[in-house]
Amino acid sequence: MTACNGGSHDVNAADPRVPDPALGADELAAALSVLPDAVLILRAVRDADGTVLDLRYMYMNEAAAQLYGMRGEEVLGRGFAELFPSVRELGIFDVYVQVIASGAPASYEASPFLENGRQGSFWRTALRFGDGVLISVRDITGQRQAEVALARTSQQYQLLAENASDVVMLLGPGWTYEWVSVAVVDVLGWQATDLVGRKVEEFIHPDDVARVRKVAADALGGAASMEFRFRRHDGTYQWMACRIRAKVDPDGSLAGVVGAMVDITDRKAAEAKLSFAASHDPLTGLANRTMLLEETTRALAAGQWSGRTTALLMVDLDHFKNINDSLGHGVGDELLRTVARRISAAVRSVDLVARLGGDEFVVLLRGLDDPADALRLAERLVVESREPITTNGTELYATASVGISESVPGVDPGHGAVDLIREADTAMYAAKVAGRSRIAQFNDDLRQTVNNRLHLEGDLRHALERDELAVWYQPEIDLHDGTVRAAEALLRWHHPDGELREAAQFIDVAEDSGLILDIGAWALGQACADAAQWARNEPRNRVLLRVNLSPLELGQPDLLTTLDDALSVSGLDPRLLCVEITEATILSPSSTVKVNLDGISARGIELAIDDFGTGYGSLTYLRSYPIDVLKVDRSFVTHITTDINDRHLVAGIVALAARLGISVTAEGIETPDQGQVLDAIGCAGAQGFLYSRALPIEEWTEFLRENLASVRT
Fold first, then answer.
1. Fewer CB within 10 Å: C terminus or N terminus of the chain?
2. What pLDDT, on a 0 to 100 scale, did the predictor assign at position 113?
C-alpha cells in the first residue's frame, strides 16, 4: 500500500487531536469524522506471549474511506496483513508496532503512493492509541507538485536571466549589487563579480546621480524607469535604460530591488541627431530660426539686466540666385557652407550665427559694451565677402549686404526678438536697394519700409470684401501607385496692382495683424466646399484636403466651431480633411491649443506637422498629441540623392513615424530620382513641382480627373 521514505520531522505533519480511548464509540466517531485528514484506528492482535502478530482495523473516518476507495464494512475487523500483505516487507508494520511499544509517535512521507487509483505524496503520522495505533494521513501531493513547479520556474528564470541580452540585477537594501547576470560582460565590459558588493552610484555618471536618486526614492513599493549613463570597464560612459521594482518590508524599509538594464546608446545618438537637426540648419550646421528666436529672447532679457546692447546682423548674399541657376545647387550649397565658416570665424565665442534659409544669415551679438562693435563686425563681413571663394576649382564672388538692428536697454525697452529680426531684415533690404555689398542700420529713415508694409496690410484688409483672394491646390502624390492622395490648399491674392501674389508675400502681414483669422476662416470654408464637390465627382477615390492653420488660429477658443461650420455648410466628410500646423505651433501649447488638438482628432480630422525637422528640438509631442502625418521639410529632400546623411535622416524619420503609426509625406520633390529614393525608404507621399505647381480650382479639377483616369487605365 505504501513505501516509507523515512524521516521523523516535517512542517506539514498532521497533528490531529487524538481522543481518549475511554470515550464511547459514538463520541469517538463524531470527533474523528470531522477531521479533514484520513484517520484510521488499528488494534494489536497478540499471541499468548504478547507479541503483536497483526493489526486489526477498528475505525476509519469518511476521509479515509474516500482516500482508500473502500467502504467501512470492507475494512473494519480485518487485519492489516490480510489486506496489505506486501506492506509488512516494506517495514511499515514494524513502524506501527514500535509506536505501540514505545508510545513515541512516528511521522513519514510516503511517495510515490498509489491509493484509489491516484499517485501522489502523503504525510503519515502514527500515534499510540490504547493497545493500538491511530494513523492520520494528509494528502500533500499538491504541495509537492507546487514545490517542484517553483523549483523548475526558478531554474527557468535563472536561465532566462543568465541568457538575456539585458543586464539583469538584484540589489540589496543599501542599493548594492548582490547578483548581476553575465550579460554585463558583453554590454558594459565588467565581470559580474566586479559589481557584486559595490554601490550602484559608483558606476553612474556624476551628473545623473541626483536624478537617479530621486527616481529610485519614488520607486519604493513599486516600479520605476530611468535613463542614465553607466561607467564601462574602460572608463567611458554608456547610456542605459533601466527598469526596477522595489520590495518593501512591512515597516516600509527597502528589502531589495530587482531590475534590468538595456543599452540605449544608439537610440540616444539618433535622438541627439534629430534634436540637433530640429534646431540647426542641415546644410551648414548653424542655428536655425527657432534657435535664433530663443537665443535672441534670452539675450534681450540678459541685456536689460546688465545694461548692455544686443544687436543683430542680417547678412544676405548678393545675386546668389545667379550662381545657383548657372552652376547648379551643388556649387551653391558649397558656397553657402564656406560663407557660414567665414562668418563663424569672425564672431566671438559668445555670439550666435544662424541661417534662416536660402542665402540669409543672422549674427546675434550679445552683451555689447560698445554698440559700435556691431557696425565694425558688419564692415568686416562685407569686406571679407568681396574676397573670392574657390569651389571645385571655380573661383566665385558672393558679396554680402548687411542690415543692423540694435536693442539698447532704456532706449528700446519694448524690443522683442521678432522686432529685432524684422528691423534687421528691413535694414538689409535697404542695403540691397542702395546698391548691394554695403551696410544699413535700422533707423527712422528706414521706417518707410515699415510704412510700406502697413500699406500692404491696409490693402489686405479689403481683400476679402473685394473678392481678391482665391484658393489654389497643389497635389500630394502616393509614391506607391502615382495616385493623388491629397491636395494642399494654398492662398493666392489678386492684388489691386494686377500682380498675383503667393501666400509667402503677405501671410506674415496677415498673421501679425490678426487678419489671418478672417482670411483663414474664409479659406477653410472655400476649400471644404471645393473638396466636397470633387468628392462627389469622384466618390470612389479618397482625396484628402490639407488646410494650413496658423498658430494664431490654433489658439482661438472658437476654432472648433469654425471647423464645424465649414464642414456642415460644405457637407465634407471630416475624414477627408487634414489640418496642417508647424512644430513651433505646439512649442508651448496653451490649454486652448490642447483642447483644439483633441477636438480636431475627436472629429476624425487628421492632423499633420508641416516642415517637420525645422522646428522644436524635442520629439515628445509625437506621443503627446494625435499626430497623423509628418511632412518632411524640403531642406532634407533637396540633396537626398547625393547626401547619405540626408538619406539616413529621412529614413530615420520614416522608421520612427512607422513605429508610431504616423504617415510621412516629403515636400519639395523636383526630380524623379528624389521620388525614387523616397519610395525606396518607405515614404508614403510626395509633394513638389515634379508633380505639379499649385493650380486654380478649374485646372485642379481637370488635373485630378486626368490623374484618376490614367491610373485606372
1. C
2. 45
Alpha carbon separation from 417 to 200, 357, 519, 528 (Å, rounded): 46, 18, 26, 36
Q: Residue 608 is inside which H or E element, if any?
A: strand 606-612
User: What average pLDDT does the chain have?
Assistant: 84
Total Cβ atoms within 10 A of residue 174 = 10
- Closest residue by Cα to residue 542 from 483, 601, 603: 483
Q: Is the per-residue pLDDT at 562 higher than 60?
A: yes
What does each C-alpha distance from 171 to 88, 221, 245 come to in angstroms?
Answer: 54, 14, 10
Which SS3 state, helix, strand or coil, does residue 526 take?
helix
Confidence at residue 19, expressed as pLDDT on a 0 to 100 scale: 43
Answer whether 580's CB lies under 8 Å from 608's CB.
Answer: yes
Nearest in space to 12 (alpha carbons), one of 155, 147, 152, 149: 147
CATH number for the domain whose boundaries are 273-442: 3.30.70.270
In angstroms, the Cα distances linking 658 to 482, 620, 623, 683 are: 21, 16, 13, 10
Higher pLDDT, 662 or 20: 662
Alpha-carbon distance of 377 to 384, in angstroms, equals 11
Contact (Cβ atoms closer than 8 angstroms) between residue 434 and residue 440: yes
CB of 121 within 8 A of CB of 93?
no
CATH number of 164-263: 3.30.450.20
**In the chain, what is the straight-line distance between the N-terminal and C-terminal CA atoms, in Å?**
86
Q: Where are the domains of the chain?
A: 25-145, 164-263, 273-442, 459-712
Per CATH, domain 25-145 is 3.30.450.20? yes
Hey, what's the cell of 583? 512644430
99-140 pLDDT, tens digit each: 999 999 998 877 544 444 556 788 889 999 989 999 988 888
Contact in structure between 308 and 367 (CB atoms under 8 Å) = yes
- Scanning the structure block, which residue is given the C-alpha cell 491646390? 473
Instruction: Establish whether domains 25-145 and 164-263 are of one fold.
Output: yes
The domain 459-712 belongs to what CATH superfamily? EAL domain (3.20.20.450)
Q: Give the alpha-carbon dihedral of 147, 148, 154, 158, to 10 degrees.
A: 160
Q: Which range is least confidently modeled, 181-195, 483-497, 598-612, 686-700?
A: 181-195
The total of other beta-carbon atoms located within 10 Å of residue 357's CB is 13
Whether the per-residue pLDDT at 326 is higher than 80: the answer is no
* Cα dist from 567 to 490, 572, 666, 692, whole Å: 18, 5, 27, 27
Per-residue model confidence as pLDDT tens digits over 130-171 = 899 999 888 887 777 666 665 565 555 555 555 556 888 888
The grid cell for 156 is 527557468
Which residues, including other chains, have CB under 8 Å from residue 339's CB and lie 6 or more apart? 317, 359, 361, 385, 389, 398, 400
pLDDT digits (tens, 9 = 90+) for 615-630: 544 566 777 788 999 9
